[in-house]
Every structure is written in C-alpha cells, then in structure tokens.
Structure prediction request, 248 residues.
Amino acid sequence: MANHARVLLEAALRERKLDRTLTTALPAFEQAAWDRTGDSALAPLDLATVDDCLHGGLPRGHLSELAGPHSSGRTSLLLRLMAAATRRGELVALVDTCDRLDVASAAAAGVDLDRLLWIRGQGTAGESGPDRAVERALKALNLVLQAGGFGVVALDLADVPLPALGRIPYTTWPRVQRVLEGRDTACLLLTPRPLARSAGGVTLSLTGQSTWAGTSARSQRLAGAQVHMRVVSPRRRVGGDVTVPAYA
Prediction:
C-alpha cells in the first residue's frame, strides 16, 4: 500500500516539477509499530516537561504550530519530535522551505535519517522569491499529506519573511486540515509567530535564549537552550520553563 503511495507521490512531484526537492527515497512502509490504542492519538516528544504540558503529545489528525523568534528553541523541539517518532518506527517528513536543515544536527538529535523524507526548498532570494518558495512548499506539504503513511509531517516556515506569510490565503489551512482529518499524522508548522492551527490542534509559543560554545563565529555550536513555552489550545492554556538539551 505504501509502495503505491510512494509511486503516486513521486509522480506528482515530477509532474509539478518538484522532484528535485526529493532528496531521499522513501523506504517501503511497514505496518506502523506504534500502538494504536490508548494514547495513539498523540505524538509525544519523549521530553517529559513538554509532554506533560501537552497532556501526552501533539494531537494526530490535526494541524499544530511551533511559533517563536530566532534561537527560541523551535528547531531543537522539532528534532526531538522527529527523533521520538522514528524511534517508534514511524516515518517523518520535513518540508524545508528555506533549505535550513542541518543533517548532522538531526542525526545527533537521534533522528533516523532512513525514516526521514526531506523535501528541500530553494530559498527566498529575489523579489518574488518568498511567495514562490511558500507556494512550492505548500504544494509539497499537500502531496505528502495526501500520500499518507507518515507519523509526523512538518512545514518549516520559520525563516520566511512575515509579509510573505501574511499573503498566504486564509483558505489554505482549512484545506490542509481536511486532508489531515481521520489520519494518524501529526502536522506541525514552524513559524516566527502564531499563524494557523486547526480546532483540535495546539500552538506552542516559545520565548527563550540559546547558549553557544566556541571562540569563533564560524565554529560555534549550540550548547543549550532555556525555553519558556506556553501551550495554547481551544481547551487549555498551560506553560512552563523547558530546558532543551544541546546536540553536539
């Protein structure tokens, strides 16, 4: 079933001239290893403080968002989420609008790269670059969600200029949610500020400060991050200070 979904996805990417963004072959899908009973409707990060705030994890079948400024811990939490999912045997996908993912950091965070579908954008250079990049990223997101078989799908819009984000049609997100309904996929947006979530999704609003190690600006590495997270959903609003471990 998943092989058929992979063929359809790759054909659709080629038809829309998005095949160059497909950098890894999707492995043959195996029956999901995660339990579909109890908390199976949630995708935990395996980070106790965060999962407690989320009452178990991100809701599957819904659109959630991870919003915060630069160096607020967005990427670290995303990598924790993807690493936890691949450890459970799930497939994960990242639509990387601005081509910002550092593969070495993802591997160091524990992400099984054999279970990661990385769809790379081409940046936002040029006068119409941001709008074109967002349009291509949204098309890729829709194709991945329709293909199915992914435990976590993330769309990274964190480095897209705010004016371009503001020009995304408001009908975009209800369409994304319609594709997600009834699926075992937790879909997550990375944004500089809250942008969209479904009625059953959550917004993780981050503030905080990262610390860096190294004497040269070109050789610094993330040493840690103290993050304040507020979880907003239609049903609850909770928050807490979360220490995000560094990945060498």
